[in-house]
Amino acid sequence: MLHHFGIEIFVGGNLGKPLSDAAFLCLHANSIEDMIQVAVVEVSSYQLEIPTKYFSPSVAVILNLTPDHLERHKTLKNYAETKCRLFSHLKHNKLAILPVGNQYMEEAYSKYTDKCNLAWIEGNPGIKTNFGSKVATFSFPTTGIVTHLQLGDLKAIGAHNHSNAAVAAFSVLGLDVGIDCDFIKSTVGILSILPHRMQVVCIDAHGITWVDDSKATNVESTLTGLKGLKEHNAVVLLGGVAKALNDRESNGFEQLIDDLKHHKGVITFGSSGAMIQKTLCDGGLEVPCVRAMNLKQAVDIAKNMATYGDTILLSPGCASFDDFRNFEHRGEVFQELALLS
Q: Which of 55, 66, 198, 208 is the most interior residue, by most CB within 10 Å?
């Protein structure tokens, strides 16, 4: 959105280029016009463990809190407190955006309530998205102004992508860089999602749609992706290295059963494949659930199961480190296999 309006931006942090590159670019800029105007930075909870006096975003967003990285943070309470360090140096004119209704997040944020303006994802003030009409309603904590953004032109699968686009637009408005909602409306149709996030790879010669959601490295992310495919008949690929779940007795995959029962079948693979298959079958999953040894075999089985009009979805719900360097590598391998089909 920012790039579309000619604003000089830097995108990086935990995602791609390190933030230090932005400082280097500013130091070596030939003129004010060449200076970075806005830095869009992803910050990991691991990075937020390091105390800092100077990191103070103009807009700080936490999209969600899921049972992830608990091998490090141990509990969701600790994880939430670490994430909320993002707000520790925000001042009164800065904007914090949080998901509504999460007890851990609200408790962790409470120590910063007097420091900045607060908006909620699916709350008021903040962002509310009507996924039926695909319209986001924005209410701003500083002014009380209410405005609307039509998201129907967004070229992405899944309600969560409409929510993410709405949060991105609200964040841009919160920067107060001279862009209003009417301007943002013109960008919605040209927005593209990042690779491996419900990315449509291709529609093959047999009429099967291939979707890469390799970034779904935990069960909650996979559940979000499945909810965005309610109108599709999918063969779903689950597997890799399942993550620790805060000392819970279950592994979490039983949460997927209600959404998976509307699809054509499930293929599990990787080091946790047998465990995932057992959890789903013991939980009453009635659609076919087949175990493969690896991703390639899972794709081969999925191709035989899918027919014209179906979708093959890689949304593993697991980390990738059993067979791949990272989730990007896993997604790239899946895309190569899809394009060979």
A: 198
